[in-house]
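Researcher: I'd like a structural prediction for the single chain below. Treat it as a standalone chain; there are no partners to consider.
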Amino acid sequence: MCKAKILIVDDEETLCEGLRTYLELEGYKVDTAPSAEAAMRMDITSYDLLLLDIMMEGMSGTELAERLKQNTSTARIPIIFLTAKDTVEDMVAGLQLGADDYIPKPYSIKIVMAKIEAILRRARKQAPRGVVCDRTSLTCTVDGNMVRLPRKEFELLALFIGNPGRIFTREELLSRIWPEETVVLDRSVDVHITRLRGKITPYGRNIVTRSGYGYGWMD
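Model: Treating it as a single chain, here is the predicted structure.
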């Protein structure tokens, strides 16, 4: 069983592959990226933790970390810097960016493993409970876990959560969520609601039905 999904961002291929091997032997799912630019083209939100080098060609690890911390969809992902920059000033600067730890090279693989375990345990305890929709990034999290929803289901959920206690008629939902479509059956709303409830378990029950009228969100 996969413990967690980790992304290593480092331009030293040998180091990446060696660390990847150790992590995979410990049960982690691991991907690597040779640069910050390459990492930015990946789905960062799918990772539970990032291991970043600082000194890379092009965008530095610190710049990548700063961008991730400023983005609401990636801000909560733990970051550990693995770098040859080992002065106290470097470490303080890295931690002030929002990194969770800073490990200077050369490092002990046992120390890296121990720190990864500790940070992931802490992240799990701090994970927010409930359902959160972020319209900026069109992402949804359920108890801290990313849930991928089709656009229409996301719009329905965001509308409900943004208006707790209000019941929307099917006609309102059709005009708000399917404004560009000339012919949409009421049944389409029911089908999307059923699918949505199944994807946000156990919070599907928060989407309530008023028979013959419509749907809404009740905390």
